[in-house]
User: What shape does this take?
Amino acid sequence: MKRNKKALIFGITGQDGSYLSELLLKKNYVVHGVIRRSSSFNTSRINHLYQDPHINNRKFILHYGDITDSISVSSIIKKILPDEIYNLAAQSHVAVSFEVPEYTANADAIGSLRILEAIRFHNLQNKTKFYQAGTSEMYGKVIEVPQKETTPFYPRSPYGVAKVYAHWITINYREAYDIFACNGILFNHESSRRGGTFVTKKIVNALCKIKLDLQKTLYLGNLEAKRDWGHAKDYVVAMWKMMQQKKPKDYVIATGKQYTVKQFVNLVLKELKMEYSWKGTGINSKCFVKGFKNKIVSVDKNYFRPLEVDTLLGNSSKAKRELKWKINYNIKSLIKEMVSEELSSLKNDKKIR
Ligand code: NAP
Ligand code: G4F
Assistant: This one.
């Protein structure tokens, strides 16, 4: 009988970790995941997958660990002997990386090294494949448009710089030790499971609350930044496909379309059927909606970053050609789903209260 493949996911409690777990379970993997100890529950995105430790032949198994703790990383890998490791663990907020740069480097740069070193140290070069969650933030102050695998990096935040280290150490271990190690260079991807402080989720949550009369104003930073936004469900498929190739390579994953933050706000308002108009420009921009007395969106300069990535736009031709990767969501269907799930969850909360 064919044995089930074993995957180990660092960052299983995050947005991507939860969708990747669902995908791998559907493909009959046994999924192991690393969770951090926390004073409150941090497993809301994976609670629906949880299996009681007392049942036999579990397919979903969680382990306590931390990407900043070499011994825990190494001992979990040795215990599980996984076929595939997905390193999704990171301090993933760009603005926060300016506040905690050293921790960001420890988790996002050296964290990747810790996993690669454990694969090498335990002689798993021929057994364990490695996926590194790279990012379009590495392109930062972009040197060409659109960005592809050969575009040089110019990171603009401690987060971006840490991820550039992780990118190159992955290539270094691939070339030095013949480890199947690949980098996904993923552009922004969102969903209803996105953390509440990322701009798409923050906008959807606040505008839905305003519509339901639960909030007055949404405060945002730079409205002119352009991003290439996809759906996380599409992007985890690309991660898995990279790991099934004959040779480990690096791939850009993006939609090839970009919108400003302001356009994203407008699309959400349209989805909510709220009639809007903007007044002022730049830091003085304000958005008004018919039937609401006060401004519903305003700019707060506290949300500006010390450095901004003004524009990101990806070219994923290589992934489409070699991985046969396909996109199922566009910006409209992404927003439609995010709005619909946000409204349901807010209405549910109201009922409970
Ligand atoms: P996310 O929702 O912020 O999830 C990050 C995950 O990393 C969480 O499970 C978090 O655990 C875990 N983590 C953080 N620090 C850790 C530590 N010290 N030890 C162990 N685990 C730790 O991020 P995401 O959106 O799913 O993104 C997944 C990965 O892709 C990240 O590496 C991110 O940088 C990268 N990426 C994301 C995007 C995007 O647009 N979403 C684009 C490109 C690249 P807790 O739940 O305990 O906090
Ligand atoms: O949603 P964001 O915080 O995402 P950002 O900085 O692009 O980073 C995300 O995508 C990266 C891939 O490119 C990932 F690697 C990273 O882990 C993360 O998932 O901000 C998007 C844009 C920025 O230009 C920001 O300045 O929105 C602008 N923005 C405007 N107002 C805001 C806000 N961002 C946030 N978070 N909050 C605001 O109020």
Remarks:
- The two ends are 51 Å apart (CA to CA).
- Residues 10-17, 34, 36, 38, 42, 66-68, 88-92, 107, 133, 135, 186, 188-189, 195 surround NAP (ligand 1) (CB under 6 Å).
